[in-house]
Design a protein that fits this description.
The protein has about 280 residues and is α/β, with parallel strands linked by helices. The chain has a single domain, classed as 3-Layer(aba) Sandwich (Rossmann fold), CATH 3.40.50.720. The strands form three sheets. It has a six-stranded parallel beta sheet with strand order 2-1-3-4-5-9, sandwiched between helices. It has a two-stranded parallel sheet with strand order 6-8. A two-stranded antiparallel ribbon has the order 7-10. Helix 4 links the parallel strand 4 and strand 5. Helix 2 packs across helix 3 and helix 3 runs parallel beside helix 4. The mean pLDDT is about 95.
Length: about 280
Amino acid sequence: MRVLVAGATGAVGRQLVPRLEAAGHEVVGFSRRGPRPVDVLDAEAVRRAVADVAPDAVAHQLTDLGGADGAANDRIRVDGTRNLVDAARAAGVRRIVAQSISWAYAPGDAPADEAVPLDPTREQPRARIVAGVRALESAVAELPEPVVLRYGILYGPGTWYAPGGAVAAALAGDPAARFLGSTAADDSVSSFVHVADAAEAAVRALEWPPGAYNVVDDEPAPGHAWLPVLAAALGVPVPERVGGRAGWARGALNARARALGWAPVRPSWRTGFTNQGA
């Protein structure tokens, strides 16, 4: 299969390309930087790039997280996805595998499965984030065979949670650190996934039935449990435990993806944080 990887130089894309090649696929990648630069916000440039590649499938791994600019990342989800889907449809592509997130679900007490609706909140900035996710997933669904991978919080090489990354700087008290996530050791529950496990799911998803899948590890956990482990792995101060929980911060379940044969090599952040890889 010829696979176009959009976002090939990102944290997941760098893991995904060699795995696709090892699985026997022909891979062409593009990103804003690298040997094949394409600005995904330029609709005509995207249309030309996809037409030139003529892929059998598209792997959408585009983000804009380097500068911790939430609005820029939302624009990639909305406008970038729109351009990519339009280009794929014009090129006759049927299958797309797209990166989404597993923390956009409506509030609840237990970890969410894929049947839980997206959060209807109007509270900002979360409403803007969820609107971007909704737009991405809606656009992707216009192709005949859409697969949406709702990743947990990504850690590992190239992510904010890697040693020397944005989270380490934030926990160390660096006033210049720019980080959009939470570093509160509270009761809010998160689900994580290592970038290598996320990439492996994207490879397998080329054969999965259309739909949405949570791609997370096996242990949703509150901040007061995972943050001390992460801080120790990063060699930074352990945050003081505090109370409280965001209602939407509930974690997610991976049973649907597991039923199709995917399983995280790093099933828990407890050991994953200390062995993130190079």
